[in-house]
Amino acid sequence: MDTRIDIEFNSGAQLPMYAIPELARMAEDHGFDCAWGGEANNKDPTVMLAAIAATTKRLKIGSAIYHILGRTPATLALQAVGFDELSQGRFLLGIGSSNQTIAKWHGVPFDHPLGRVKEYLEIVRLAMQGEKLNFDGKFFSASRFKIAFKPSGRKIPIYLAAFGPKMSRLAGSHTDGVLINMADPAQIRRIVGEVHSGAREAGEDPESREIICKVRCSVAENYGQAREALSGVLTYYALADYYRDLLSRMGFGSEVEAMRDAWRSSGFQAARALITDRLFNGLPLIAATSVEEVRSGIKPYFEAGATRVILPYVASSGDVVGEMKRFISSWT
Length: 332
Description:
Layout: E1 4-8, H1 20-29, E2 34-37, H2 45-55, E3 60-63, E4 66-67, H3 73-87, E5 91-96, H4 100-106, H5 113-128, E6 133-136, E7 141-145, E8 158-161, H6 165-174, E9 177-180, H7 185-201, E10 210-214, E11 216-219, H8 223-239, H9 241-266, H10 268-272, H11 277-281, E12 285-288, H12 291-303, E13 308-312, H13 320-329
Parallel strand pairs: 1-2, 1-13, 2-3, 3-5, 4-5, 5-8, 8-9, 9-10, 10-13, 11-12
Antiparallel strand pairs: 6-7
Helix pairs in contact: 1-2, 2-3, 3-5, 6-7, 8-9
């Protein structure tokens, strides 16, 4: 399977929405294959992806990810079919089970993630095909819903966010691939194995599954400036309950707990000051002084089995739009 390099525009909610269409056209002209948008409390990906779809011709658009707690399966199916129609077949649908923090934001329960995801996927897939829904599951139900127009008939690719073995196998058995966030190459290799196992269990070709991972990057005049920009992102993940657990499973438990202790006693910047070289260098973060260094830095992820690498760019200066333009225009 070919390897592809993609971009993400709303990482950290840095970019103003009005700049997105021009940046997307630049990304299309400079060889990026897809522009992704994630969903949390950042700039809304639906608004952003619609703007990209309407102002580009070849660039794919993808959700990385929509979490299942933010909308009903029927609503997501309508959005996905609408995106696919607007983009004329360029939409990639990424979804995920979410986490305890986002569940609290929305005031909804977070339990039985595997079971919830399975039911959600089934409803979304049926609805996108234009079928009338009469689904009564343990976690979701949808009765007498049917899209009021004829979908294009294109099979919209679905990707599932996963890190643990069970969710990774589910991605392999029930979707077209996996979306991975904050995993080093060693973890990528493990997840690839689980995804392929899931595909084989479903009687599918393992090599047909896409392995998509995010590698955040920043390009500045010197390494320290780029590292400082990315350290803010790293601190956020270390302090978030769900990612704390993931980072601990990757062998960074002592560093993460020290950062959390400092945060509780002295705040965010105190935690940020405790980032070690071991922690920073062990995560998918590339502090660089040139685009060539970014290209070199993502090679281990492709070698580990990734078929797509998403580059969420993190600005190191106040000129966020100008810096993003320079990064994109330097890519080819």
